[in-house]
Amino acid sequence: MEKLQTMLFEAATQGSITSLHQLLNYDPLILDRVVVNSFNETPLHVAAMLGHVDFVKEIIKLKPQLVVELDSNELTPLHLAASKGRVEVMRVLLEAQPDAARLTVYGGENILHLCVKRYQLDALKVVVGAVEKPHELVNSRDVDGNTVLHLAVANKQVETIKFLMSVGRVEVNAVNNKGMTAMDVLMRSKRDVRDSKIEESLKQARGFGSNVETNNNTPLINRKNQNNNSWGALMKQHSEWLEHTKSTLMIVAILIATIAFQIGANPPGGLWEEDQILDAQGKLVPDPHHAGESIMARNYPNIYGRFYVSNTIALVASLSIILLLISGFPLRRNVFMWILMVITWIVITAIALCYALAVTTVTPNRNLLRNEGARRARMRIVMVINIMIYVWVSLMALLLIAHTIRMTKKLKLFMRRSFGAASSQQNGKNNIAVV
């Protein structure tokens, strides 16, 4: 009998309906025996987890009560299918038994909690679209008081949050056992580039922190404390990020400064090893040179000037970065971060131009090449270099513009907040004076 059950699970693993019917012909009660004797999982659990849709349909037709059977982790086949993103299997299971979606698992979590934890947005959408009153499932809480929205915000799942906001009747300001709303979870989480989108979605749904009331009679001090606490947490995380970035930027600046100094002292093509003032006949040469002078300066006078201008810019800009980082200036301020970003942009662009000019000088002159293939190869090299220079400069310019716009917006927002805080403080003083 155990051998037959083993064969049944092998059929479920392979999704073989033929093997299933062969076993049923041999033992018509084999599915009933599995329900009675199995303490871990049923063949439906296995087939659902592996996504064998046809096998799942056949099992449900033969034994529909298997849909709500629990495995050793107290999960139904629907939960397993959701955790693996088997949306087609989920549709079959939900059609057979929609109430299976409302069963809770360990920790009081429902199937939507599981979908968020496993990053299965499509599976979550299938469940929400299949059950009646989906808001009840969305607003359900686990043993820690967390709703699906709490988990989605904690995991920074932007698209999931947007979808949950569209369900309707979602308790966006539900408080968990720690007294935190979804907005509190966001403000106390590690800073992320997705935070602004999440905050916008929550605010559009009228989400706020747990200490902020929706009525207009809320004392200003409560709102101020809430903002200060959230801002303090963000500034702490930002400070940690800055320390890490400062060290990395210092290393990069020192490395580029070293490279710029080396190629400045020893340019491409090298230096003349001896003086050449007289030719073999003892006559003055029209273009004399001396030992230690750059060969590049004589052979490529125009490129030589541009090369050293770019190299000097890279060196000075790198040294400027080092100086700013060790000077103790308040780098937490946006204006200094913007200055650092601009200088870094200049350094990278200047060193890229140095490379392009160096490659141009060490590549043989087209007019001196007799082989046509070599000439075409040289033309391709020069063309690629020119294209890359234009693309690079354009990209850096776009980044500079984007960061400048971003900094301008932040400065405007800061000015509004400062003005608003000053106005509120003045109004508070006026109200006290009236009282």
Structure description:
The chain is mainly α and 435 residues long. It contains 19 helices and 2 strands. A two-stranded antiparallel sheet has the order 1-2. It starts with a helix and ends with a helix. The C terminus is likely disordered. This is PGG domain-containing protein. InterPro entries: Ankyrin_rpt, Ankyrin_rpt-contain_sf, PGG_dom.
Helix content: 55-70%
* Uncertain stretches: 212-231, 431-435
**Mean pLDDT rating:** 80
Radius of gyration: 35 Å
Main β sheet profile: 2 strands, antiparallel
Strand order of the largest sheet: 1-2
Number of helices, counting only DSSP H or I runs of 4 residues or more: 19
Structural class: mainly alpha
Strand percentage lies at under 5%
Number of strands: 2
The span between the termini is 88 Å
Following the backbone from N to C, one meets helices and strands in this order, namely: HHHHHHHHHHHHHHHEEHHHH
- Report the principal-axis shape: elongated
Transmembrane segments: 307-326, 338-359, 379-402
Subcellular location: Membrane
Domain PGG: 240-361
Membrane topology: Multi-pass membrane protein
